Each structure stands twice: as C-alpha cells, then as structure tokens.
Amino acid sequence: MIRFNIPPFTGKETEYIAQAIRNMKISGDGEFTKKCNTWIEEKTGTAAALLTTSCTHATEMAALLAGIKPGDEVIMPSYTFVSTADAFVLRGATAVFVDIRPDTMNIDETLIEDAITDKTKAIVPVHYAGVGCEMDTIMDIAKRHGLLVIEDAAQGIMSTYKGKALGAIGDYGCFSFHETKNYSMGEGGALLIKDPANKERAEIIREKGTNRSKFFRGQIDKYTWVDAGSSYLPSDMNAAYLWAQLEKADEINDDRMASWNLYYEMLSPLKEAGRIELPTVPEHCTHNAHMFYVKAKDLEERSALIRSLKAKDLSAVFHYIPLHGAPAGQRYGRFHGEDRYTTKESDRLVRLPMYYGLEPENVEKICDAVKEFYK
Questions:
Q1: Are 171 and 149 spatial neighbours (Cβ–Cβ below 8 Å)?
Q2: Exposed/middle/buried for 177, CB within 10 Å: 0-12, 13-18, 19+?
Q3: What 3-state DSSP class applies to 44?
Q4: Which pLDDT score, from 0 to 100, does residue 212 have?
Q5: What's the rounded Cα separation, in Å, for the pair 363 and 354?
Q6: CA 168, 172, 175 angle in degrees (round to 5)?
Q7: 30 in helix, strand or coil?
Q8: Whole-number Cα distances in Å, 344 to 72, 260, 323, 341, 347
Q9: Residue 205: which of 66, 25, 70 has the closest Cα?
Q10: Which burial class, exposed, middle or buried, applies to 312 when counting CB atoms under 10 A from its CB (0-12, 13-18, 19+)?
C-alpha cells in the first residue's frame, strides 16, 4: 500500500517536545514558537510572523485586522478549501468567486477587476500547489482600487514569485502547517504581516484581545482586555514539532522536488501523446513540490483512474469541490462571471502520492500504474 500522504518527521520532534516540557512552558509563545516565528520572518522577509493554531485561524486574524464587516465583499477563487471563504463569511462578508486559469489552477487575475464593487474590501489569491498567482497584476489592481490583499499561501511555504516569498507579497499572508503540508505541527499555521505597524494589534487579537504579549516582554506591569480577539495561539509543544522540520527545511524541500521531477519525467510521454495534462509552473515562479497532479480527460476518466490505482493499493485523490456549488457557497457567496474552467478543471484533476521520504521506486510504481491505465 502506498499512502497518499505521510506526515513529515525528521527524528528530532520528540526530543524537542520533551525539551518544551522540561522548559515548563507548554502553552504558547515559548522558546520554539519564537524560533519558528523568527525563521519565517528571515526566510520570507515579512515584517512579522506569528504562529497560529491553524491556517484557518491565520486567515480569520487577517480578516479581523483588515476590518472586514457585514456587507463587505471579498474576491477569491471558488476552487479552494472552505477556510478561504469561512474566515470572511464569519465576519459577515460575501465571498465573490471568480474563475480560475486552467494552466495553474489559480485565480484568473484578468477577471478580478470586473468583480470589484463599492463593497469590495479585499482580494484573496490562493497559491494552488505552491505555484504563485500573478501577484504583480493583483497588487496593481488592489493599489488602484484601495483594496487589501490577503494571500492564502496555505500550500506556498518555500515558494516564490519573481524572487519574492509567497505569503509576504500582500498585506497579509497565511501559511498552513497541517499534517498534509510540507512542514507540519499537526494542526497549525502562521500569519505573515507586511506592515510592522500592524504587529501589535495582531498580537492582541491572537491573545484573546489582551495586551498580554507586551506584559511578558516587560513593556507593561499588567495586562488587560483591550480589543476583540480569540485564542489563536498554539502550544509550544506543537511549535517544537514544527521546529524540527524547519531546521531541515531545505532537505525536505529537495526531497520533495526530487519526487516531483521524477513524476514529471516519467509521465511526460503520456502528456506528449495528449493523454493527460501535467502541472504548469510559470518561469517566474519557483514552487515547493507541495503536490503532483495529473489531469484526465473528464470526470468519468478521472474516476476510473482513481479506481484503477486503488485496486493496486495506490492512494490517489481528487481535490476541492468548487465552493460556489456548495450549499454554504450559494448562501454566503456568489460567482461573478462565467464558470468556464473552475468546475471543468476541478473534475479532471487527480493528486498522486507526495510526501517527504517517498521512495523513487514507489514513484516509478505509481507512474507505471498510470501508464498501464492509459494503455
């Protein structure tokens, strides 16, 4: 059986968790949380980074910092995980979905401007598979219309767009450290903040609306409730698990890239024969091998391919059901323009196993099974 995902593990995770326990600081903002925050700041160039309990919560914090309120509209793709929309729907906003590009599966930047109304407050690009959206265009649109940009970079850590780290280009960026991601703390995420002036309020929101972070730094002699917030602060034991992987971030990235490149090499003959499509990575983007997918001809062929692989004990999955077709998507959002690609392309996509430590012989076995299906 080749599993679709195995959570990353380097060997030092349990040692660091034990160290967090010995430190007698297992709640948030301990030694390992601070190490992870600093690593993200130095790696991405963002002004501030704060670990959170999930990428969902990082996006909720971004919505709070952006002042999203009932009646506002937020533009995003429909082809994304529900958290992208939930964070803004919880604030009373309407999710305005626009179509995706069929090459990268990212939001079609040429359709964003037409979806803007006097109620629009933010644009939320989602960097699918760790491949950057066309951020120059998106940032230009946002600047001309006075909008915020909140990057859903859940899959984007270690990826860049024109040399800039994904998540650190817009006003806010959100990473995921879920067990399915390149680096994991079980459940977890991080909020990246572009303007250092917004860090203090972010800390307050993350600490239940209190200025407790300033108290721990000795800046005030007592802390109190100063704003609306919630408990978005992860345990330092979770951060300890993550730190073991961030220490080996390049090694993990290189390992995944080797698997990705082998997939691409072995499946290219099927692509050249017109039987499948493979991922597109624009020249100005570097990706992080978060996933490898193929596109079948249609939904029927995709379903048959997944069944064929399953019969050989090979796990393959499809990805998002477009949000605009979901009951909550119809209740809390609307699709602007024509759905030319979102549903059609999502019906064709199959994700193949991808994780740190995936053996080359298993990649070859999976590719052979795909080739056999297309005979």
A1: yes
A2: buried
A3: helix
A4: 82
A5: 9
A6: 70
A7: coil
A8: 29, 24, 14, 5, 5
A9: 66
A10: middle
Count CB neighbours of 232 within 10 A.
24
Tell me if 94 sits within 8 A of 72, measured CB to CB. yes
Angle, CA of 227, 231 and 232, to the nearest 5°: 105
Report the C-alpha gap between 180 and 54 in whole angstroms. 12
Indicate the DSSP class of residue 288.
-
Could you give the dihedral angle defined by the CA atoms of residues 91, 326, 80 and 61, in that order, rounded to the nearest 10 degrees? 10
For residues 267-288, one letter each, b for 16 or more C-beta atoms within 10 angstroms of the residue's C-beta and e for the rest, the string is beebeeeebbbbbebbeebbbb
Residue type, position 160, single letter:
T
pTM value is 0.96
Structure tokens given for 102: 């069929």
Q: Which domains does the chain have, with CATH numbers?
A: 13-246 (3.40.640.10), 249-373 (3.90.1150.10)
Residues of the chain with pLDDT under 70: none
Quote the tokens at residue 134. 């066309």
177 near 189, Cβ under 8 Å?
Answer: yes
Q: Is 153 helix (H, G, I), strand (E, B) or coil?
A: coil
Q: What is the pLDDT of residue 223?
A: 86
Backbone angles phi, psi at 86, to 5 degrees: -55, -40
Q: Are 371 and 303 in contact (CB under 8 A)?
A: no
Cα–Cα distance measured from residue 252 to residue 129, given in angstroms and rounded to the nearest whole number: 16
pLDDT at 194: 98
Count, residues in the chain: 375
Two tokens, residue 349: 């996509």
State the CB neighbour count (10 A cutoff) for residue 180.
Answer: 18
Task: Find, among 326, 313, 296, the residue nearest to 353 by Cα.
Answer: 313
3-state SS class at 345: helix
Nearest-angstrom CA–CA distance, 339 and 105: 13
* DSSP string covering 55-92: HHHHHHHHHHHTT--TT-EEEEESSS-HHHHHHHHTTT
Are 169 and 151 in contact, with CB atoms under 8 Å apart? yes
Taking the CA of residue 209 as centre, how many other CA atoms within 13 Å lie in the half-sphere pointing to its CB?
Answer: 7
